[in-house]
Amino acid sequence: MQFLSWLLSKMMQIIFGSRHERRADSVAADKEAGVFEGEYSSRARSFESDYNAAVKLLRDRLDTRYPSGHYGRLRSGENSPYDHGEDRAMAVDTMSTAIAMALREGATVQQAAEAGAASAGI
What we know:
Distance between the termini: 75 Å
Strand content: under 5%
Largest sheet: none
Low-confidence stretches: none
Mean pLDDT: 78
Number of helices: 5
Helix content: over 70%
Radius of gyration: 26 Å
Shape: rod-shaped
Structural class: mainly alpha
Oligomer: single chain
Number of strands: 0
Order of helices and strands: HHHHH
């Protein structure tokens, strides 16, 4: 009797397990090819585009407050030897974190950009 239940369980595993493996293999192949559309992939794509849009909204304000080393010296009327690189990097890190958190909580792009600006002080 024990042998019969073991044999039955193995047969079920072969029949149903192979179907599951085929499905998992096809999903993996689709993901590698970039054609798999699931709930997570569409959400991730939306998050990435929203994040990039929010950063673009803040780029000019960030450049005004913390000019990059290259463009900071080329601006007319400014002769500042101060390097804003470290301050800019900290502001970008803080701003990025705030934007990501706001978007994950369901904020719009504009609201996420304002949250990023408030966190960086720009």
